[in-house]
Write the structure tokens for this entry.
Amino acid sequence: MKKISMLAALGAIVSGGAFAGPGNMAKMDNNNMNNNNMTTVMTVEEVRGLSDDSPVVIRGYLLRQNGENSYVFQDNTGTINLEIDEEDWNGLTVSPSDMVEIWGEVDKNGMSVMEVDVSAIKKI
């Protein structure tokens, strides 16, 4: 099971499985994330202004795990929660110092709760 544990000495984010490599996408969904339809990288601030189910691509860092599939993501404009299911990791291992690119969609649960439901992740 993928778990991120805060190691006091290292502050590392760890997950089990084989290293997928910085050039490999961890998972692709049916929208074919490699096509040119979703190549514009957004900021967390821009994502916060989007409506539910809007597709997003963001770059930044995974700071920590918040729950079983919940993670805190940060870029230079702020933080947002991500939902990354077990199968979306596809063996990728990251630490807080690794920049990642995230593909997913906005998931709004009411007026104030927003997260990104991740469909693909890769190191860059």
User: Anything to note?
Assistant: The chain has two helices and five strands. The longest helix spans residues 44-47.
